[in-house]
């Protein structure tokens, strides 16, 4: 039963060891809401999030200790449950700073990070607008799904009249490790995922690739990050009819151990020059790990923090399943560059990107202050 501090120079939920469960929600501000509404919402969210991450109710006696004549301040389903490693991470979408037609609703248009714009169109995108975008986001991760859902439910309730959910996603199994102390989990294609992820122990790489630095612009975002979310549908049934050898060729690693096809064990660096005889590269030229690797992406890497999802099934009886991909990076250009290299990815035959969003993740709040305060 881990308890992570809410206040700090960086928000929790980024380098925190990836928990097992996710409830993610993207919100739009209400029409007519103004600057004071936004500031008060961020203050109210901060207060409640700081309490819930410590295993407390939204307010003291919130669930059953209040007036019997009023609806309880806390919805109650987490009463008696531990904090379960809950982290709550807040983000700001491009449309919070100014609407698509340029309206500065909250007086913060001048503060918009230059690189915080809707992601460009990528080859193969099959995006549904109702599964992407948003003015604000909240990522709630915990080791107990009820705790994560309780967090999003109560924060949505607090937002009533000021912001409402635009889209949301439940994730049931982490698909990455963000600490060397964690075992590598598997995604729904059955492969270990997160082997070559940025790990919190590698503080130099974390500073270099994940967090906005003190000399980067804008200054208010220093200690923050950028989050990209991509809802990626997996064509599970096609994958499940694919030979093991082909599955491994597509990823560039073996399925059992997660070792690169150039040899070694899980954490051996892939050797992209290695050949299997007859001049055939051991790791195919369109294998996922080759095209996603920093060596072909100007040294860029990502802190991946995605989750598996199954949202029921479609009308043909196929699982509506996939990977809710999330990555944290110092600049959106890291994701954009890698996703562009992946245009040639052998994996594309088996996946479809259906949702997309980008958020600036402000630095952590000091106790007594609130998340996003440097903006105002
Ligand atoms: C590595 C699966 C989408 C970026 C990997 C690995 C697997 C995998 C199995 C190897 C193990 C590891 O190092 O984690 C998938 C699946 C995807 C997907 C099934 C879609 C459903 C993406 C996307 C991006 C991405 C959209 C970014 C644009 C990376 C990176 C690596 C990686 C940066 C590490 C490469 C390295 O340094 O060796 N992925 N991935 N992946 N993936 Fe993906």
Give the cofactors and ligands: protoporphyrin IX containing FE
Query: What is the radius of gyration?
Result: 21 Å
Say how many strands there are. Answer: 10
Structural class: alpha+beta
Number of helices: 8
- Helix content percent band: 10-25%
Task: Indicate the overall shape.
Answer: globular
Beta content: 15-25%
Q: What does the largest sheet look like?
A: 6 strands, antiparallel
Uncertain regions spanning at least 5 consecutive residues:
none
Distance between the termini: 36 Å
Tell me the domain tally: 1
Structure description:
The protein is of the alpha+beta class and 376 residues long. It has one domain. The chain is 19% helix and 20% strand. The chain contains eight helices and ten strands. Strand 8 and strand 9 form a beta hairpin. Helix 1 runs antiparallel to helix 3. The longest helix has 18 residues. 44% of the residues are buried. Protoporphyrin IX containing FE binds next to strand 6, helix 7, strand 9 and helix 8.
Short description:
With 376 residues, the protein is α+β, with helices and mostly antiparallel strands.
């Amino acid at each position: 039963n881990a308890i992570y501090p809410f206040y700090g120079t960086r928000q929790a939920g980024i380098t925190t060891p990836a928990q097992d469960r996710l409830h993610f929600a993207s919100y739009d501000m209400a029409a007519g809401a103004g600057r004071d509404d936004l500031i008060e919402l961020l203050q109210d969210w901060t207060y409640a999030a700081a309490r819930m991450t410590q295993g407390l109710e939204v307010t003291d006696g919130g669930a059953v200790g209040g007036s019997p004549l009023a609806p309880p301040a806390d919805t109650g389903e987490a009463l008696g449950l531990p904090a379960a490693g809950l982290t709550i991470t807040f983000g700001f979408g491009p449309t919070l700073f100014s609407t698509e037609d340029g309206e500065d609703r909250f007086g913060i248009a001048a503060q918009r990070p230059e690189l915080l714009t809707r992601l460009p169109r990528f080859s193969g995108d099959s995006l549904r607008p109702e599964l992407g975008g948003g003015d604000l986001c909240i990522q709630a991760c915990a080791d107990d799904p009820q705790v994560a859902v309780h967090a999003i439910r109560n924060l949505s309730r607090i937002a009533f009249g000021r912001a409402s959910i635009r889209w949301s996603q439940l994730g049931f199994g982490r698909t990455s490790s963000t600490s060397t102390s964690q075992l590598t989990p598997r995604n729904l294609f059955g492969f270990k995922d997160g082997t070559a992820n940025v790990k919190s122990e590698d503080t130099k790489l974390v500073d270099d690739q994940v967090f906005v630095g003190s000399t980067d612009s804008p200054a208010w975002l220093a200690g923050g990050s950028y989050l990209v979310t991509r809802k990626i549908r997996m064509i599970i049934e096609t994958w499940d009819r694919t030979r093991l050898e082909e599955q491994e060729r597509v990823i560039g690693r073996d399925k059992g151990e997660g070792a690169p096809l150039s040899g070694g064990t899980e954490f051996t660096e892939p050797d992209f020059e290695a050949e299997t005889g007859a001049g055939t590269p051991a790791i195919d030229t369109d294998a996922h790990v080759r095209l996603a690797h920093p060596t072909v992406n100007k040294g860029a890497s990502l802190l991946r923090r995605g989750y598996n999802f199954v949202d029921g099934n479609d009308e043909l009886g196929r699982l509506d399943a996939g990977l809710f991909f999330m990555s944290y990076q110092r600049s959106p250009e890291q994701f954009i560059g890698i996703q562009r290299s992946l245009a040639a990815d052998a994996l594309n035959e088996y996946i479809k990107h259906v949702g997309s969003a980008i958020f600036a993740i402000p630095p952590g709040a000091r106790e007594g202050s609130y998340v996003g305060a440097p903006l105002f």
